[in-house]
Amino acid sequence: MSWKALLVDDEWLVRRELRHLVNWEEIGYTLVGEAANGLAAAEMIKEERPDLVVLDIQMPGMDGVELARHIAAHEPQIRMLVISSHDQFDYVKNTLKSGASDYLLKHELNPDNLRLVLGSIRKELEQDRAREREEERTETERKDSYSPLLRQFVRELVLGYRPAVQQWMSAYPYTGSRSALLVIQIAHFFRLSQGKTDTERSQFIQSVLDICQQSIGTMQHGCAVYIDHGRFVILIGCAGVRSESAIYQELSHLEGAVSRSLHLLLNVKTACQLAGVCTSAGLLPEMYARVTEKLRYMSGMEVNAPAEMTSNSDAHEQLFSIQQEKQLLTAVIGAAEDEIRMILDEVLKPVLGRSANDARLRLLLCELMSLARKVAVKIGFQQLDVLEARLEQLALCEDTAESGEQLKRVFTYLSQALGEKPSYSPYVQQAIQFIRHHYHEEIGLDRTAKQLNLSPAYLSRLFKSETGVGMVEYINRIRVEAGMKLLQSGEISVKEVYEKVGFNNYSYFFRVFKEITGQTPQQAAKREQDS
């Protein structure tokens, strides 16, 4: 592909030299015009739509600095290369702030360094174009995710009604090769549906689908589908993700986001279960059938019959508190096995002696199993297949006391695995230490990378591969943790906390705090006052 370039300099000799110094066509560019000042260049940019503007600093009328600002404001996709003299460097810095890719000194201009810089800019343009195409493709696929045709296809595929899979994979490739299936059951769906008209039921189902689809968020390929009797599935394409651990981490976040959103927005309880990751669309019906049986037993719900109505009304009560959840996480990280057992004894105490099929007991076990997955992701536990095997064994246990003991063994196992986990690399340790000391300041990936003399891209990959979370999310968690401590101290108001822990505005602090803790800052402060 040839990129369009425009030359801008008030000296005709300089433009001539630039034109003939290299073979522009050979290095991937087509010269589409020349201009002697910024005003003329601005007009030509409208007509020719160049990808690169090579510009001088000192020109009559609109100079290079003003032209760079104009381009940055109106055509930010255009790359700029500044050609300057020795005594113009202060001006050059202003053009670089406006987004210029690079600069060359006129007295050092030669074929080699011009070719080198143009080659570097060409790579940037290619990356920009690839990113645009990916965004366009992703947007198209996201729109397709709302398509009734796609949803009908996924439903039939999951239920095993579509033998001609290959025909549909050509239209929706992410429903084929490597994909993950999350199954969601609305608790007491029959009871919730009673008294509703067909229109109201349809609206409720659509609301659930919309919330599920929105929770998919930044995942590139995902489709939420209603199956029947309050049961939904989310099919996620994973073809571009190599690490199975990364897939489980994403799905664990998705499971939590869906459950929280449905509870907050529609006031419904859910039982969620990851069916797993499969490499063939033909395996989806078997995976779905297996996890459906498990979900039915775990949640104590006969979803195909009005028997749901026999479930105890206290199943809607809060099964265990956020404070207990945090205590459990702290105990796991601190390898405090006695404390793990004590916390779980306290959580399970209200349901001891109940039938193994009791709705409240099964929902509590389901939520604790979901919490075990979240804890595993938080601590960077890698053997998620081993964890799933233990949880599956727990789900099939029919003895209440034994279920409790197995739960304790699961959380103790996670704690012991954390103790055996190798320490982070020196770079990641330094990054964590730097963040913990400076979280209340304006820090991010760039500043941390600069502190460690690393490139941001390298540090970003290294940090996420070792910690399991991106640096922005890690910094936010540290800040929220500090904010929680300030709220618990009761020394400052909720509205003052965000600045103390490094957030720039209250609304962003509020949203992040709620995403991480499951409660608003006001609720956290009130909970502490009431305790």
Automatic annotation (TrEMBL):
GO terms for biological process: phosphorelay signal transduction system. It is found in: Cytoplasm. InterPro entries: CheY-like_superfamily, Homeodomain-like_sf, HptR, HTH_AraC, Sig_transdc_resp-reg_receiver. It holds the Pfam family HTH_18. Residues 429-527 form the HTH araC/xylS-type domain. GO terms for molecular function: DNA-binding transcription factor activity; sequence-specific DNA binding. The keyword Repressor does not apply. Residues 4-121 form the Response regulatory domain. One of its GO terms (cellular component) is cytoplasm. This is Response regulator. It comes from Paenibacillus thalictri. The lineage of its organism: Bacteria, Bacillati, Bacillota, Bacilli, Bacillales.
